[in-house]
Amino acid sequence: MMIESWNPPLLHDYSKLSRLQSNHDCSNDGVFMMEELELPMIDLNGLKSGDEREMVKCENAIAKASSEWGFFQVVNHGVSLDLLRKMRKEQMKLFKAPFEMKATCGLLNNSYRWGNSTATCPKQFNWSEAFHIPWTKISEAASYGEFTTLREVMVEYTTSMQDLAKSLASVLVRKLDHKDSEIGEICNENSCFLRLNHYPSCQISQEIFGLVPHTDSDFLTVLHQDEVGGLQLMKDSKWVAVKPNQNALIVNIGDLFQAWSNDVYKSVEHKVMANGKKERFSIAYFLCPSYDSIIGTCKEPSIYKKFTFGEYRYQIQQDVELIGHKVGLSRFLQ
User: Fold this and answer.
1) pTM of the full structure
2) For 37-92, how does the pLDDT look when each residue is reduced to its tens digit (9 = 90+)?
3) I want to staple 302 with a disulfide (CB 3.0 to 4.6 A). Which of 84, 195, 297, 330 is the partner?
């Protein structure tokens, strides 16, 4: 299969890992056609209606979905649909740049990645490319090179996503009878990230991960995906496919919120499957604390030991280097 010049050398890297597969138990299991399910849909107009009953109903729906699914989708979320369209257009233009430019020109704080450099077998490989950009670098004009129109849109986009993420996180904090200001003290713009994802079409197999199974290591993630689909999550001990909805944003709980809530809210394993015919685009906003923020639980007795976000990220890096995958919160159980 010919890889276009704007796509990274995914086939080359994957083929090298495939030749090693006979020495590893790394087959992709549990990959099959499945029914697409609708995530819980929440209309956020309830938070702004001024009607106390509607607000409580909306907040309860957010907390319920976070506890039972770990995922939900929102409409009337306050992020302009025109802004979402402009951001998608700029994202596609960026990923259509030559691979050599994306990989070597220092674009967006030199944040470009593809595949998985630590993978030792096909099961650990991501058929995708991404820019994972810290908030602090998003406004820097020097990071954009010739992509000058991307900067203005991205600054507006991240500001809108930050407002939405903190609003939802505040609801979840209040539902556990804590002050919503607590989330603001832990998470601020300087510690958050934006990830631009591109999943090229993959004609060699329907069992290749666009993004390997994982949980998010943040407090909260807000995702905007296109119409192609491919996102799957673990529900009731089985994988289910998420039906895409371009007009809704997907929200999921991260590991830190699960720890802080003492397992009330669930950080759920999810993955993306590659598509044999279509490329896929998505954008994820990660609400994160500063690296020295202590992640304690909201009530006692606590399931987890206290740890900082920096300690958590370091442990994840160590696990990936030593055993090839993230272990996660189980490392910090009491």
Assistant:
1) 0.94
2) 999 999 999 998 889 999 999 999 999 999 999 999 999 999 999 999 999 999 99
3) 297
Range 171-179, long-range pairs (CB < 8 A, 24+ positions): 171/47, 171/59, 171/62, 171/63, 172/62, 172/63, 172/66, 172/220, 172/257, 172/261, 172/265, 173/298, 174/59, 175/59, 175/60, 175/62, 175/63, 176/261, 176/264, 176/298, 176/299, 178/298
Tell me the mean pLDDT in the region 8-26: 78
Give the strands of the sheet with 249-253, arranged side by side: 41-43, 71-75, 249-253, 220-225, 280-287, 193-199, 129-134, 112-114
Position 4 confidence tier, pLDDT thresholds 50, 70, 90: low
Q: Which residues, including other chains, have CB under 8 Å from residue 24's CB and lie 6 or more apart?
A: 120, 121, 123
What is the rounded (10 degree) CA torsion for 201, 204, 205, 210?
Answer: -40
Examine the pLDDT at 30 and tell me if it is beyond 80. no
Q: How far apart are CA 88 and CA 86, in angstroms?
A: 5
Query: What is residue 318's DSSP assignment?
Result: H
Phi, psi of 240 (to 5 degrees): -130, 145
Quick check: 1 pLDDT over 70? no
d(CA 15, CA 82): 40
Relative to beta strand 129-134, strand 238-242 is unpaired
Side-chain half-sphere exposure of 328, counting CA atoms within 13 A? 17
CA 299 to chain centre: 27
Express each pLDDT in 131-170 by its tens digit. Answer: 999 999 999 999 999 999 999 999 999 999 999 999 999 9
Q: In a 3-state reduction of DSSP, which class is residue 134?
A: strand
In contact, 228 and 280? CB cutoff 8 Å: yes
